[in-house]
Amino acid sequence: MLALSCWIGQAVQAQSKHSFAFSKTEFMLDGKPFQMISGEMHPARIPHEYWRHRIQMAKAMGCNTIAAYVFWNYHEPVKGQFDFTTGNHNIAEFIKIAQQEGMWVLLRPGPYVCAEWEFGGLPPYLLQTPDIKVRCMDPRYMQAVTSYVEHLAAEVKPLLVTNGGPVVMMQIENEYGSYGNDKNYLYALKDLWLKNGINIPFYTADGATPYMLEAGGVEGAAIGLDSGGSEADFEEAKKQNPNVPAFSSESYPGWLTHWGEQWQRPGVDGIAKEVKFLMDTKRSFNLYVVHGGTNFGYTAGANSGGKGYEPDVTSYDYDAPINEQGNATPKYQALRNLIASYLPKGKKLPAIPAPIPTISIPVINLTAFTSVWDHLPQAVNSPQPKPFEAYGQDYGFMVYKTTLIGHKSGKLSVKDLHDYATVFLNGKYIGKIDRRLGEKTIDIPASDVKNPVLEILVEGMGRINFAEAIIDRKGITDRVVLNGMTLMNWEVYGLPMTEKFVQELSASANNATKPGQFFKATFNLDTTGDTFIDMTGYKKGIVWVNGHNLGRYWEIGPQLHLYCPAPWLKKGANEIVVFDLHQENASPVKGVKTLE
Prior knowledge:
Domain Beta-galactosidase galactose-binding: 518-574
EC number: 3.2.1.23
Catalytic activity: Hydrolysis of terminal non-reducing beta-D-galactose residues in beta-D-galactosides
Protein name: Beta-galactosidase
Number of helices: 11
Domain Beta-galactosidase 1-like first all-beta: 385-495
Strand order of the largest sheet: 4-5-6-7-8-9-10-11
CATH superfamily of the largest domain: Glycosidases
Strand content: 25-35%
C-alpha cells in the first residue's frame, strides 16, 4: 500500500517543490514509489466555469492525477495567432486549479493528439499547403510545430514540478507507432521541448504491440500502453526498454460514438477488471476518459472506417464515469468503490461534489428567420472547384455554383465530396450526397431551362483524426463530372458560419422555400441551469444559443439532444438560432435534462 499511502499523504502544495523521476520499474515522487491514478479530461471540451467541479469529481472517484490533452488548433486557430488566455483556452488556469485541488498533471500537448478531435488537434491552416506532409520532418510542418512548442512551453514552464507546479510528465506526440516511423521527428520534438525549458520526464503512448512500441518509442521516455491491461502488455513494454517504467496511459471506461450508430455502452465489467489488475500490481494508469465533455462548434473529429468516413457525434459523453453534464454514473460509483477498497485503513475518499443543477425549458416556438441563400458573400471564381482550405476556410459550409453547358442532365459525380452536400438545379432541391454512406453520384433531371444552374451546398464535417487518412481537406476536393464531362467555371461562396456571422444575420424571406433555412426564437428564463436542447423536430444542422455554437445535430442519431451549459444562459431573454440543411418549416424545440 506504499504508493497509495504516498498519494493520500502528499497533496500538491502550491509553493513547495517536489521531485519526479523514474526507477527502472516505478515512478518516483520525492524519492518514493508513486502510483498515478489518473483521470483524463480536456479543458477545451468543458466550460471553464466547470473545470474545478470536474477535477473535484475525478478526485472523489479516487484519482490523484489529471491527464489533459492540449489541442493545438484550438489555441492557434489562425497561423501566428495564439490564444492561451480567454475562457476555455487558458491552459495555465486549468493546471493551477488542478494543483489547488491537490492533483498532479500529465500534459499531452501533441502536436498531434487524436482525441476524436478535429484533425487530431493539428491546425487546418497547414492544409492550405497542397503537398504538406504532417507528423514527420517536413520543414513546413516543423516550422509550425516549433512555433507552437515555443508558445505552449512559455505557458506551462512555470507549472512544471521542477518549478513548484503539478505537471510531472509530458507526452511526446501520440500513438505515433500507429501512424509512422520517423524517429528523427520524435527526437526533434523531444529536443524542442528541452530547448524551451521543459525539464521534466517524458513519456510516449502506443498500443502494446512490438511494431507500435518500436516505431513510437523514445529512448529514456516512460512507456505508455494504450491500454495496459495484462502482464503480457507490460512484458512487451519491458522488451522495448527494460530501463524505464511502463503504465497504462489509456485505460478505457467508455468509447466513442459516430453518427448513425447506437450509443457505445461498454459497461463496467471490462474496466473494473482492468483497474483491479492495475491496482493489484501497483501499476500507474490513466482512465481515458474519466469525463468526456462536449465537441462544441466544429470540433468533433471523424474516423476513416465504415465506407471511408465516420464522423463523431457532438457529445463526447463517451459513456465515461462522469457523464457529459458532470454527473456520477453507476460506472463512477463502481470504480470509486473499487479504488477506495485499496485505501489504507482509516482513509476515505473525498465526498462526491453536488451535481450541477439542471433545468427543463418549455416548448420554444421558432419561426422562419432567413435563408443562407440570402447571405452569400462575394463569389470567388474558380476554373474548377477547390477544397475549403484553398480558399482559406477551415470549417462550416461552402456553395459551389456553375451553369451547365453541353450536358445538362444525367449522372453527376463529385470527386471527391468531403463531406455532405445538398444539390440544387435552378434553385430546386434535387437530393443529397453523403460521404458517410459512400455516396458520390446523383442524377440531374432534365429541365426546360436553356442554361441550367447547378448549386452544391457542401458541409465540411469533422476532419479524420486517426491513422493514415488524416489529410482530410473539406469541400469538393478534386472536380465535378456530368456524364464524363468535367464541369468548369465555378462561382464559390465561403460560409464559415462563425458565431459572429450568425449574430449579424438579418431577417429575409426571398428564398423561404429553398432548403438551407435559419430559424430563430427568443425564450425567457426565471432561473438558469444546464439543459439539453431537444432537436427531434429538425433534420440536420447546427444550433446557437446566445451566440454559442452548441454543435451539430442530425436526425439519423443517436444524438438528438445538444448540451447547453448554464453559463451560456441568462435570466430573462435568451436567443436560439437553428440552421437546418433540409427543414423548410419551423418546428418547436425544448430544453430537457438528459442527453437521451
